[in-house]
Amino acid sequence: MESLSALTSRGPVPWNWLLLAEPGRVTTLLASNATVMELKDSLFLTCYTNAVSTQWFFNGMNLQLMERMKLSSNDSTLKIDPVRREDAGNFQCEVSNPISSAQSVPVELDVKY
């Protein structure tokens, strides 16, 4: 009986060696508040996912972390403390694994001052 194999970029691989990975999917991007007071409130944004890596975006650009911003150990939660008026805008997370990536729907933050 002939063994089955798959053709990869490194040549044929036996089927029992293949690891089939599910594409990264954002389940939910949640904000602790959508409206916050400048210099009084903190904000937690959590990207719930099964993906390998998480990247954050602010108004469509890679988020540049400031001193007031901290990421959790797996990068799935962003904490901003205290919130400032320049933090008002759209936040998104992008999750990925070795075979795919997906971006969340933006969460709009309104900062009152």
TrEMBL record:
<dbReference type="InterPro" id="IPR003599">
    <property type="entry name" value="Ig_sub"/>
</dbReference>
<keyword id="KW-0325">Glycoprotein</keyword>
<dbReference type="InterPro" id="IPR036179">
    <property type="entry name" value="Ig-like_dom_sf"/>
</dbReference>
<dbReference type="GO" id="GO:0009986">
    <property type="term" value="C:cell surface"/>
</dbReference>
<dbReference type="InterPro" id="IPR052598">
    <property type="entry name" value="IgSF_CEA-related"/>
</dbReference>
<dbReference type="InterPro" id="IPR007110">
    <property type="entry name" value="Ig-like_dom"/>
</dbReference>
<dbReference type="InterPro" id="IPR013783">
    <property type="entry name" value="Ig-like_fold"/>
</dbReference>
<dbReference type="GO" id="GO:0007157">
    <property type="term" value="P:heterophilic cell-cell adhesion via plasma membrane cell adhesion molecules"/>
</dbReference>
<feature type="domain" description="Ig-like">
    <location>
        <begin position="23"/>
        <end position="110"/>
    </location>
</feature>
<dbReference type="InterPro" id="IPR003598">
    <property type="entry name" value="Ig_sub2"/>
</dbReference>
<keyword id="KW-0393">Immunoglobulin domain</keyword>
<dbReference type="Pfam" id="PF13927">
    <property type="entry name" value="Ig_3"/>
</dbReference>
<protein>
    <submittedName>
        <fullName>Carcinoembryonic antigen-related cell adhesion molecule 1</fullName>
    </submittedName>
</protein>
<keyword id="KW-1015">Disulfide bond</keyword>
<comment type="similarity">
    <text>Belongs to the immunoglobulin superfamily. CEA family.</text>
</comment>
<keyword id="KW-0732">Signal</keyword>
